């Protein structure tokens, strides 16, 4: 049941500190502070390239993973949505590994993409939340998310636990490839271990986000901007808002604004900026300035250092804990989930069963 919560989605958002913790426990050895994935029948050090395929929110998890794996593990990654990948008949490298991400493990396009990759000789790894699912059964290696059943159609805890597993995978590949030094691994493991605590802190912004939701509920369009690891989170935030509140929203790479979408901006368009104070902060900040100068109402999601630099330029701010760059996407997901949730509740839409959508898409 929903317990004390009004909706499954709300319950699942609030479960995130616990289920991220459960997922970390499965893969981190607390004694050595190292990550240990299940044994695999192959080594990532032999892989020439990694192909990641998924749909919807799981696809955005793949985009975050691309950034992590290329940056920290030195392995080139292609990411695609399953419905495009499967019909393009892409050539796949000898000795390649293909990774499929699916909460349900039953998404038809993702399964078809898996079968295609298998027919092309790829080693098949999947990240699923349902151990007995078809995708799990057809994989060489299964990495589980320990999110527990996700009932709300809008995926929340499945996404942040997928990111948790993908972070562990990126570190493992980095170790095997020799691109991640022992102390770097220890620093990332340490940051990951603190994510449940920080996630719980982020949940304290619920009331503030509920108020902010009032400003968004009447908008016709909403833009979400981010760079680097923030870009997939911008797209995830936009997808959450679209699917449960029916407000048109787009997630954009902040640096792409001046290549077109900035023409949309006036006082009526709320702009949600996802900008932890990482190495790209100054760049994102200047994109935010451009948007604010055109009358856009900016909701700025950042940390203490970021807000003290730029907080006064925004119409509203959300302050998250200052964390290592690597783990920021996991935490910055939570406020955009809560914002979408409160907008939908305010509008009175069916949060857990939005129109036209099914929890698991088993048709083409
Ligand atoms: O079960 P899957 O992870 O394979 O599902 C993929 C998408 O259908 C799913 O993430 C969908 O986009 C969600 N409704 C997003 O909230």
Automatic annotation (TrEMBL):
Residues 40-179, 212-354 form the SIS domain. It comes from the Bacteria. Keywords: Aminotransferase, Cytoplasm, Glutamine amidotransferase, Repeat, Transferase. The keyword Metal-binding does not apply. It is found in: Cytoplasm. It catalyses: D-fructose 6-phosphate + L-glutamine = D-glucosamine 6-phosphate + L-glutamate. The active site is at residue 359. Its EC number is 2.6.1.16. Signal peptide: none annotated. Catalyzes the first step in hexosamine metabolism, converting fructose-6P into glucosamine-6P using glutamine as a nitrogen source. Homodimer. This is Glutamine--fructose-6-phosphate aminotransferase [isomerizing]. It comes from Thalassospira povalilytica. The gene is glmS.
């Amino acid at each position: 049941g929903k317990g004390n919560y009004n909706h499954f989605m709300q319950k699942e958002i609030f479960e995130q500190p616990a289920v991220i913790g459960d997922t970390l426990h499965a893969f981190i050895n607390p004694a050595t502070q190292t990550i240990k994935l299940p044994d695999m029948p192959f080594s990532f050090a032999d892989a020439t390239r990694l192909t990641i395929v998924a749909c919807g929110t799981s696809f955005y998890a793949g985009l975050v993973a691309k950034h992590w794996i290329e940056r920290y593990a030195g392995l080139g990654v292609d990411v695609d949505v399953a419905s495009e990948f499967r019909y393009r008949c892409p050539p796949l490298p000898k000795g390649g590994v293909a990774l499929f991400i699916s909460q349900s493990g039953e998404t038809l396009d993702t399964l078809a993409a898996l079968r295609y990759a298998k027919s092309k000789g790829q080693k098949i790894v999947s990240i699923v939340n349902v151990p007995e699912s078809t995708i799990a059964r057809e994989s060489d290696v299964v990495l589980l998310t320990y999110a527990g059943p996700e009932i709300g159609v809008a995926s929340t805890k499945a996404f942040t636990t997928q990111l948790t597993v993908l972070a562990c995978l990126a570190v493992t590949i980095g170790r095997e490839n020799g691109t991640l030094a022992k102390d770097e691994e220890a620093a990332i493991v340490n940051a990951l271990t603190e994510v449940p605590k920080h996630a719980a802190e982020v949940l304290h912004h619920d009331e503030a986000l509920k108020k902010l939701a009032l400003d968004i509920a009447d908008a016709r369009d909403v833009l979400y901007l981010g760079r680097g690891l923030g870009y997939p989170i911008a797209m995830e935030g936009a997808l959450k808002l679209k699917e449960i509140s029916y407000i048109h929203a787009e997630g954009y790479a902040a640096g792409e604004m001046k290549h077109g979408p900035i023409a949309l901006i006036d006082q009526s368009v709320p702009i949600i900026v996802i900008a932890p104070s990482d190495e790209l902060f100054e760049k994102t900040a200047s994109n935010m300035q451009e948007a604010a100068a055109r009358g856009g109402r900016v909701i700025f999601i950042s940390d203490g250092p970021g807000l003290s630099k730029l907080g006064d330029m925004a119409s509203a701010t959300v302050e998250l804990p200052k964390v290592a760059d690597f783990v920021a996407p996991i935490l910055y997901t939570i406020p955009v989930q809560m914002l979408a949730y409160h907008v939908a509740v305010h509008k009175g839409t069916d949060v857990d069963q939005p129109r036209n959508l099914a929890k698991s898409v088993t048709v083409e």
